[in-house]
Amino acid sequence: MSLAALEDVTLRRNGEAVLDAVSLSVDAGEIVTLVGPNGSGKTTLVRTLLGAVPPDSGRVTRRPGLRVGYVPQRLSIDPTLPMTVGRFLRLPNRHPWDAIHTALEDAGLPDVADRPLAALSGGQLQRALLARALIGDPELLILDEPTAGLDQPGAAAFYRRIETLRDSRGCAVLLVSHDLHVVMAASDRVICLNGHVCCEGTPAVVASAPAYRALFGDGTGGALALYRHEHGGHRHEHPHPHHHETANG
Ligand SMILES: Nc1ncnc2c1ncn2[C@@H]1O[C@H](COP(=O)(O)OP(=O)(O)OP(=O)(O)O)[C@@H](O)[C@H]1O
């Protein structure tokens, strides 16, 4: 059984289908990247999958007792509040401190528990949000545009961390992105959303799908560039956009 799935889900707002007969599932341990332009329904899809919004038709299923970690697109509290990172992570469930420290370490942010939240850089804040999502030991980690606001090396490093986390913790990852031209090479599947699912498959399959090109045009020469890091041998610690390998050449 999938961890979470939508089956033929349609959701209307103001007479328009925001989600149009969408089917999607996330299985244990896989990385699924959901890409789509602004307004294509990505956040609505995630909220529907989480059970926060009921669909007008279709079925939403989640494995009973599924543990989900959610990294929101934006922080919903004022990051300038005089609060330490550790206290922020203890909200609202008062998790034990050793769980907080483990999560910070896994998110690549050790030794910051006592620092004010306001003192974190954008990339560090993103990792703090990731740490918060990891505390409950999620089976499914959902990240909504986690690299928005990060520069290319920052985004690449964040994606590497997600890949490592999937490997070490075995959690499934649903990654939402509006970056139409660059996705994590480690994605097992890429799903392109534009109200409906217009194509899906491995990154390489989607990159060469006519529906992808028709929707997302010719940025990056029409290719889907992949954040890929090499295992062993030469390694790009700071990948540059021009160094992205492309799926189809
Ligand atoms: N509660 C609502 N009432 C009316 N319209 C809504 C509501 N929720 C979403 N929509 C509309 O549904 C469409 C999809 O919104 P959604 O936020 O899911 O898109 P998105 O792909 O996540 O966009 P972005 O990349 O900008 O975050 C938008 O046109 C939005 O205006």
Instruction: Please identify the structural class as seen in this structure.
Output: alpha/beta
| CATH 4th-level superfamily of the largest domain | P-loop containing nucleotide triphosphate hydrolases
Domain count: 2
Present as ligands are: adenosine-5'-triphosphate
- The CATH architecture designation of the largest domain is 3-Layer(aba) Sandwich
- Largest sheet: spatial strand order: 5-6-7-3-9-10
Name of the CATH first level of the largest domain:
Alpha Beta
State which percent range the strand residues make up: 25-35%
Taking the sheet with the most strands, its summary is: 6 strands, mixed
The H-and-E topology, N to C, reads as EEEHEEHHHEHEEEEHHEE
Shape: globular
What's the N-to-C terminus distance?
Answer: 36 Å
Number of strands: 12
The multimeric state of the shown protein is: single chain
Overall radius of gyration: 18 Å
Question: What would the average pLDDT be, to the nearest integer?
Answer: 83
CATH topology category name of the largest domain? Rossmann fold
